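Per reviewer request, we include the raw input and output of the structure prediction for the construct analysed in the revised manuscript.
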Amino acid sequence: MPNIKSAIKRVELAKVRTIKNASAKSSLRTIIRRFEESISTDSETAALALKKATRALDKASSKGLIHKNLAARKKSRLTSRFSKHFTKVS
């Protein structure tokens, strides 16, 4: 445990931020899971869930919660999964 007052404050801040980041990552995973579950339903529901997941990934990326390339990769994979499931090949 640190002895210096500013170091003690930094430790407390790190604890708070760790809890906040864990909560945000958990909610991000929940949004992505809800999209994956919505693929089995109709296309409108899945499209709304995809839009929500894309927005959540962008927000997480802009806040530094996840890396921007991770967000781009996940958005790409979710979009391709949506397209593969709901587009018909003629």
